[in-house]
Amino acid sequence: YNENGDQLAEEIDENLHEVKQQSTSLGISMHYVLGDFKCKVDELKQHSDIVWTKGKLGPSSMSLEEYSKLDQAPPKCDPPDDPNFHQLAPVLARGKNALGNRKICPRDGRRDCSLVDAVYKQKYSAKANQFASWVWGYKLSIMISALLRWLMSSGLDPNSEQARGQSIWW
To answer: What is the reported pTM?
Structure first.
């Protein structure tokens, strides 16, 4: 390297660090969750590469490829009308129809990025300024209801610009 090459390499490293930092601080847009998110969930639940099976805790999902490799496959069932986080994760975050499928992750430079990175260009994610825990198996409708209730108890109209500025890290 010469001096110009070293300077360019340093600038690239700084930019990559900035992009990674931005990515790790992203939250999903409250406006997206309360609006188009449910439609996207319903669309992705129906993809043919996802198999829904009956489990002890209700329906669970896996890829058709995973299902075909099972020695004793559980019985198939319809996708849940109101899925919980654990049921949604394989649909939204993994597999060929996941929102981040084949998109480069700004955190590690590999294919398949997170949900918040996948929807960033559509402005459905931004720097998180709220936190909501959704790991206990709450159904999507409960999370949406809780978020709406929180907005209204905070004096925010769900359609207001201030409400649009809320992004959730969950």
So the answer is: 0.78
